[in-house]
Design goal:
two-stranded antiparallel sheet, Arc Repressor Mutant, subunit A
């Protein structure tokens, strides 16, 4: 299975915000860190906000941060949200659909895929490799905006 670009960006955003704790992060800061379009990130952050994964503060010193501790956000749940209904094959209209054994096997594989992801939280991803959080914190050249929560 290959994740959509939307899911990829959502996971990157969540890792970025987790590494920064409670500090508000501007879209421009995240975009610069990953060399991603701010327009794409606005869509991703909007979706994450509607789902309760991030919260935002408006204004000059505004930005985004995680809505809950990174240790409470399961990677599997996040990706289920961003990917929507995942179906590896479209069996509708197939002449063999009534008696085929492929669909249940692929469904089992997808369940196993998400079962592994459900074992990990966003905090686990940040802490998984020594020095990873430092690498995340070093991304981007945009300085934090004045007045951001530290």
């Amino acid at each position: 299975m290959q994740l959509t670009r939307y899911s990829d960006y959502a996971l990157r955003v969540m890792i970025f915000l987790a590494a920064r704790g409670d500090r508000l992060c501007a879209i421009s800061e995240i975009a610069a860190a990953y060399a991603i379009s701010q327009n794409h990130l606005m869509k991703v952050l909007h979706g994450l906000g509607k789902a309760g994964y991030v919260i935002s503060a408006r204004g000059r010193s505004g930005g985004y941060r995680l809505a809950q501790p990174a240790s409470a956000i399961r990677v599997g749940a996040l990706l289920r949200h961003t990917e929507g209904d995942v179906c590896l094959v479209d069996c509708a209209g197939c002449a063999l659909a009534a008696g085929c054994g492929v669909a249940p096997v692929l469904e089992e594989a997808m369940d196993a895929f998400f079962a592994v992801l459900d074992k990990y939280t966003i905090a686990d991803l940040v802490a998984r490799k020594p020095g990873f959080q430092g690498l995340i914190l070093s991304l981007g050249l945009v300085p934090p905006h004045a007045g951001a929560v530290q």
